[in-house]
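hey m, so remember when u said the tokens were messed up on ur end? i reran from scratch. heres the input so u can diff it against urs
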Amino acid sequence: MNIFHDNLKRLALRDQDLVAAVKSVAGGVLTIEPSRGSVPSARRSGRWVHSAYDPLREAQTWADTHAPSCQAGETVVVAGVGLLYHVEALRKKLAPDVSLAVLIPNFDELHDVLAARPLEAWSEHILWLSGSPTEIADTLTRTGHPIRCLSYTPATVWDTDFHRAIEDALRRGLSHKAGGQLTIALVGPIYGGSLPIAGYVKRALETLGHKVQWIDHSVHAASYDVMGKLKDVRNRQLMQGRMADVLSQWTLATLAESPPDLVLSMAQAPLTLQVLEHLRKKKFLTAMWFVENYRHLTYWQQMAPGYDFWFVFQQGACLDAFRQAGARQVSYLPMAADPELHCPLTLSEEERHKFGSDVSFVGAGYANRRRLFPALLHQPWSFKLWGNEWDGADDLRAVLQLDGARIDTATCMKVFNATAINLNLHSTTSAGLDPQADFVNPRTFELAACGAFQLLDHRSQLPQFFTEQEMVSFRDFDEVPGLVQRWLNDPAARQAMANAARARVLESHTYVHRMRELLGQIGLSQPDRVGAVLRGDRQQEMLLKRCAEDASLESLLKALPAGQRVELKDVAAHIRSKGSTAALKREELMVLMLDEYRSETRDLL
């Protein structure tokens, strides 16, 4: 018998189908080479999968790093096969009540492993996962265990799409089955485009059943604006910087009042790196949804190491840039719409006359818009321009509405609904269309949610969200006049496309969808914290099941409202409600003692 057949016999004890699959391939993916320490190492496509010097020590270091985070009752899923040194080291370090699974994207690679080294008895305690990403995710979900995902990076670079698809499927599964109630501190900006988005996020989180602590910094906008009127640039920056520091400390003090499960910041929220590092020391989880073009607003470069999780609406180079700047985890999360606000409206004739036109645009006067929009004048159809920051655009003054005043969301909705063709031109500092069109703005989803027809400049991500039957885009601004005339002449087709786009948004692109994805991603990364709450592990009924043999604890939990999340502070509050003269049981006194200790050690300042 040789090594290969000995290893197949071991695998057959647990998975006959896997053995058959390995036998059906020839291998040849890995190039096996001896390491300096004499044990085999390997290359794949010329790159080392394990250390050329000491792969065993390398594997042990990897296992030592990740083992402490693995909890009893979890299923730990490892991405990256290689020669399985890292899996062996981790399995031997984990307790028996921690399950260990390995993803198998390529049977040829596993064939090479089985021919290269004996796996020994530890391999009989591994769950080998193969098949489509959806099938693997379903298999893991059916175990009913919390799932923790780990990656052995040197062996994953050739199968990133496979591993990403599995993680996406697991995240979706967790987000859609989430039954627990998180407490989320939502930190808003002082002003800016992310301020209304913060409101949409708050409503979405509450719709999902979570408790939101809204830390609203927009109430300080007037003071911030006053400081902005200082003529001396140094004094202006100094005062506004100090105000941001004060608001950051104020946020910290607010969090200390009632510590949340998660601190979620919107772009430009006044949280300093120093405060974020302090929150990490106090074991708070922090996340930022950066709903800005990372090329234009670059403060993220200094803040990247501060947050546990970053979510951005650009991919590719953006994700790489955040990682290089020190972001621990960065994920793609596109924009969306809030159907409660972005919706079809029934307008009066007076409103249609005031807010309507054949073509309209709502937005600020960026350079590319100032240069391109004059081509829309003197056409056989009407054009209205809404928004602020159009000072100096004298050639557009005749079509500028409300003398260039900023308009609120309610007015925007009336314009969207009253207009035949809404123009959606993404901003850029260049003279024409955005040369790096790698994100889709919120307006795209908001217009669609209103059932409003739009023409937008083509974006590389657009096919991810809408088909050509749901959205019309242009690649050259010279196309716009012809497209306008074509679609003005076909109102029935225009309405059909607008209806299809609205249906797509309601199905897939609301802020509720996005918050499910965000929390699912965090829950997958934190299975024993946010993940445990989302799975419902802290709900009263689940806790009752876990303490079924402890009559004293069971009686304490039954006194609390059914269907609610239960924490130590809730049990303590119920005990205290009995009054200072009540005779308390031993377990009740212990709960009060633990709660007092919790209160004494939660000081953040």
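this time it looks ok to me. The longest helix spans residues 233-257. if urs says something different then somethings off w ur setup not the seq
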